[in-house]
Amino acid sequence: MAKNRIKELRESSNPKITLKELSEKLKEKGLSFSDSQLYYYEQGKRSPRSKVADDFWQALSEIFDVSLAYVTGYDIDSQKLTKNLDSLNSQTKILSDEFKKDTGKAQNPTIKELKQYVNGDQERKINEDIKQLNNISYNLNEINRKKLIEYAKDLSKLQNFEKEKEKAEDKK
C-alpha cells in the first residue's frame, strides 16, 4: 500500500490544519471521522472502512485541492520520472548513434527503423506489459482500479508536459 499524504497536506496548508480542523472540514462534507481516527489513517496504521473509503479520499482531495492519486500516495514522483526520462532519452540517442554507425545512414533513424534495428524482443515485452496491466486491472477492486486509472492519467499528463517542455527548449 502506498503511503498516503494526509499529514504532509495538513502541515503544508496555509495555515496548517490540525486533525480536529480536518475532522470538522470532513463533517461539512457529511463525513464523520474523529481526530484520533484521522491520526491512525495518516500514520498508515488503519484505513477507513471500505464502504466509506472512496468518499473519504475524495473529500480529502477536494479539501486539499489535489488529485485523488496524490492524497492516497499513488501519484508520480516527478523528479524520479524526470530522471528516468532523461535516462531514456540518453539511451535513445546512444541507440540512434549506433544505428547510424552500423547502417551508414547519416540522418536520424525513424521509429520504424529503430524498431527493426532493436531485436524483436522489445515489441514482445510491450505486449507482455499490456497483458500484465490487463491482468492486474482485472484483479483489482473498484477503488484500486480507479487509482490505477488516475495514475495512468497522471503519467500521460506528465508525458505531455515533458513533450511541451522539450518543444519549448528546442525553440530557444
Automatic annotation (TrEMBL):
One of its GO terms (molecular function) is DNA binding. It comes from the Bacteria. SMART domains: HTH_XRE. Residues 6-71 form the HTH cro/C1-type domain. InterPro entries: Cro/C1-type_HTH, Lambda_DNA-bd_dom_sf. This is Prophage pi1 protein 27. It comes from Lactococcus lactis subsp. lactis (Streptococcus lactis).
